[in-house]
Structure formats: C-alpha cells, structure tokens
TrEMBL record:
<dbReference type="InterPro" id="IPR048469">
    <property type="entry name" value="YchJ-like_M"/>
</dbReference>
<dbReference type="Pfam" id="PF17775">
    <property type="entry name" value="YchJ_M-like"/>
</dbReference>
<feature type="domain" description="YchJ-like middle NTF2-like">
    <location>
        <begin position="28"/>
        <end position="121"/>
    </location>
</feature>
<protein>
    <recommendedName>
        <fullName>YchJ-like middle NTF2-like domain-containing protein</fullName>
    </recommendedName>
</protein>
<dbReference type="InterPro" id="IPR032710">
    <property type="entry name" value="NTF2-like_dom_sf"/>
</dbReference>
Amino acid sequence: MKNCFCGSDEPFSRCCGQAIKGTVPSESAEKLMRSRYSAYVMAAVDYLIATTHVSRRARLVQKEIEQWAKTNNWQRLEIIYADTYSVEFKAHFRDRSGKKQIHHEKSAFVFEQGRWYYLDGEFEDL
C-alpha cells in the first residue's frame, strides 16, 4: 500500500484520506496543511474550499483551484516549520511544461467550532 501524498509513513486511507472524506477532522494546523496538500494531489476542490476559513471563501474560484491542482504534477511536501497556528512548507511540483517548481508558503490557520481552517498565506520568492 502506498504511503500518503503528504509524506507520512501511513497509507493515504489512514492519513489524509480520512480528512478529505470527512470521516476524521484534522487535529492540528500541520495535519490540515498536509491534508490540503493531498487534496491538491487528488484535485479534491470541495475539500480545499471547505477547509478555507469562511471569511476567505468569497475570493475562491472553484475552476481556478481545479485547474491549478490538475495541471501540476505534485512531487512532494516539505514541512519547514510548524507551530500551533502556522505552517511553513514547500510544495515541490512540475508545471504543465515539466519544469520543476517550488511553492514556498507560510500559512496561517484558525481553530473554530472544533475544526481547523486555512486562513491565508505569505508566499516566498525562491
């Protein structure tokens, strides 16, 4: 059985798959970040929108998220730093032309009504 896309040693079905299916909510900002990365790999757009804080959802465009998820070949997730409410990470991928890319972000999260939500991120130029 293949390990989860997020880089854990667990199978997808026992790791991020549970969060994406809605059976087990993410228990920390880092785990939500990992599940969102896996959601990009799977193009699970509804999950990406649902785990974005309600105050930020109006600016989301479902077709753009889907296109971003599907046109890139996601290679691996690298967690640089994580604390209670923030995660710095690098998402390694190949764009549609096959060129290696790195999305480097410092993400902020909030915990409301028993669930974690992605709030926003600062993007790093590499």
